[in-house]
Predict the 3D structure of the following.
Amino acid sequence: MIEHILQRFHEWDHLGTKSADDGSRLVAHTPRDFPEAYLHAFFAPVSEDRWKACGLVLPPPLRQLYRECNGLSLFANSLALDGIRAHYKRDASAQFQPFDLATHHEEYLLNHPKGLPEGAIFFGSYVREGSPIFMTPNDPQVHRVLRRSSRVVNSWPDLATFLATEYDRLDLLFSRAGYLIDPKTPTTPKRAG
């Protein structure tokens, strides 16, 4: 499911990479604004037992995604897919930790008005703008809603399409040096309709 993204990551290797013992990887060192900043992060998968302990019932496409990774950060957190955090230490290892799925899912549910589909699982967001993405148990589509809204503003037919098309769209917004070409340009997709 994430093969397209992992292959595209190699286009950025020339800017530098950093790896953790568990296989997590940071790609495209971009130190202009922060000395340890990287454009992308791949978080290595965690065990099935860790996911069961998380307590969330994930739709099959998300279960497949989390067999391949424990979350992603794309284009300087323009798009982040949450995962399971091992710790909250304030040290260099924190770079290899995704945003916490269970915590963010609960926050999104508390902050969104009624009207969300039954069983919606919030699994990531467009971090700069704060709009979350979700799936439901019996529908392969991925949806984006605005912060504190239940109105769907974008949908994709399935998770693989969402990941590939959003990576490709975001790629056009960034220079080959790894920085947003125009900082005023929104990194979220245009709203449908």
